[in-house]
């Protein structure tokens, strides 16, 4: 069909250029939300952004970067702003599907072992390298979001150990990635059950402290979740209130943490408002 090799090369170059532009645009959509410091504006904007992202996915259905960016945006919208449970589940279903597809273009062994036993799954994760960390982290966060919206489903809860395995591998590859949030996920996972019932909150505490240290305290979500999950579980009101007051008085820092920090401040105020009631029970 193409008459000259040079023309074929030109079309290939144009295609690659178009792909790079689309990838950059997909990532910029996500960054535009992350840097927004008004949660109401972010919530109102995201449905339009999701449709735009769908258009990019339609144009490049096997592009791992675009799929991953779309997964991140769908998952964030579902877990942060959607109150209708059915809609949230649909969005996290889509997020996990896209994140899985993106990762499995790099390492198909993940897809093959996802439903296998935990040890087999961990071995598959060992095949991933530092260059794969963005796709792996996106996969882990999408899976965690899916579990959050399917928390009344025992099958969903049974998948928590595999999400823990994913985040453990992210931390092994580069624990500082995304301000140490792999440690934050591991902290929350280990701070769900009291020690008397077999929980590991002290392991969770170490992960919380690690996450805070890595971000130098700039990721306020870590302190909010530390208070919400560990301090309340261990009935430590002094720690609880100190962490939340630090969040409320924190000054603006990293631009890409604007939205999450704004939401963290809202959550901190809500948790502080119920502190006396909670710890007097």
From TrEMBL:
- Recorded superkingdom: Bacteria
The answer on whether this UniProt entry bears the keyword Signal reads yes
Q: Which UniProt keywords apply?
A: Signal
Endpoints of the signal sequence: 1-21
What PROSITE patterns would the database entry show?
PROKAR_LIPOPROTEIN
Q: Does the keyword Iron-sulfur apply?
A: no
Q: Which InterPro entries match?
A: TatT (IPR031823), TatT_sf (IPR038537)
- Protein's UniProt name: TRAP transporter TatT component family protein
């Amino acid at each position: 069909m193409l008459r000259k090799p040079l023309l074929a090369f030109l079309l290939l170059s144009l295609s690659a250029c178009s792909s790079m532009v689309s990838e950059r645009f997909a990532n910029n959509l996500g960054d535009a939300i992350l840097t927004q410091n008004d949660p109401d504006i972010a919530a109102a904007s995201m449905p339009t952004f999701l449709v735009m992202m769908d258009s990019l996915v339609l144009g490049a259905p096997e592009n791992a970067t675009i799929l991953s960016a779309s997964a991140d945006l769908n998952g964030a919208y579902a877990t942060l702003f959607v109150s209708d449970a059915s809609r949230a589940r649909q969005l996290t279903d889509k997020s996990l599907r896209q994140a899985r597809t993106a990762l499995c273009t790099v390492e198909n062994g993940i897809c093959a072992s996802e439903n296998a036993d935990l040890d087999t799954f961990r071995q598959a994760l060992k095949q991933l390298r530092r260059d794969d960390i963005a796709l792996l982290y996106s996969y882990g966060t999408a899976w965690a979001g899916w579990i959050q919206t399917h928390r009344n489903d025992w099958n969903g809860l049974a998948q928590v150990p595999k999400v823990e395995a994913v985040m453990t591998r992210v931390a092994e590859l580069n624990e500082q990635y995304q301000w140490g949030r792999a440690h934050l996920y591991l902290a929350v996972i280990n701070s769900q059950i009291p020690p008397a019932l077999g929980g590991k909150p002290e392991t969770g505490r170490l992960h919380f402290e690690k996450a805070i240290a890595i971000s130098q305290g700039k990721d306020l979500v870590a302190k909010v979740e530390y208070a919400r999950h560990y301090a309340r579980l261990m009935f430590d009101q002094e720690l609880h209130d100190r962490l939340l007051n630090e969040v409320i008085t924190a000054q603006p820092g990293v631009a890409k943490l604007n939205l999450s920090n704004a939401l963290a401040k809202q959550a901190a105020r809500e948790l502080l408002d119920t502190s006396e009631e909670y710890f007097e029970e």
